[in-house]
């Protein structure tokens, strides 16, 4: 994997549409797929945007995610990043069984925070085993915070 740019163009995310912002994030992290869920008044995370290969059968499952369920739900509940090196072999219970159907391995979900308030969850995944570095995680958290500002 190439090193991340020293100063990724985070601020430009605010001026991009959600599909463009997600594409930019995936490009910077060299990720294969991504999701953007927003927390709605019903207390569920609603899928607002996705990019990359997500099986059609999985889309109904991830359209609405309860806080506390799966990686996105845990990231929302804990208000902190949740990652798995290999979705295919993870036995921790962090990832839901349906996540395996994506064929992805390395995955991370981060909360999108507006100050101290949860607005949504940003998730990315790659086809190979991968632990996202602290600098990548920090960058993704910052990207999520910028996107959170544009959510309302």
Characterize the biggest β-sheet.
Answer: 6 strands, antiparallel
Rg of Cα set: 14 Å
Could you tell me the strand content as a percent range?
Answer: 25-35%
Number of strands: 6
Alpha-beta classification? alpha+beta
Helix content: 25-40%
Parts with pLDDT < 50 across at least 5 consecutive residues: none
Output mean pLDDT. 83
The gross shape turns out to be: globular
Task: Give a description of the structure.
- There is one protein chain.
- Helix 1 (18-29) packs antiparallel against helix 4.
- This protein has a six-stranded antiparallel beta sheet, sandwiched between helices.
- The chain is of the alpha+beta class and 152 residues long.
- The N and C termini lie far apart (34 Å).
- It has helices at 18-29, 59-62, 70-78, 134-150, and strands at residues 33-39, 44-51, 64-66, 82-84, 107-114, 117-125.
- It contains four helices and six strands, in the order H-E-E-H-E-H-E-E-E-H.
Features:
about 150 residues, alpha+beta, 4 helices, about 30% helix, globular
Summarize, please.
With 152 residues, the protein is of the alpha+beta class. 28% of the residues lie in helices and 25% in strands. It contains 4 helices and 6 strands, in the order αββαβαβββα.
Strand and helix layout:
Layout: H1 18-29, E1 33-39, E2 44-51, H2 59-62, E3 64-66, H3 70-78, E4 82-84, E5 107-114, E6 117-125, H4 134-150
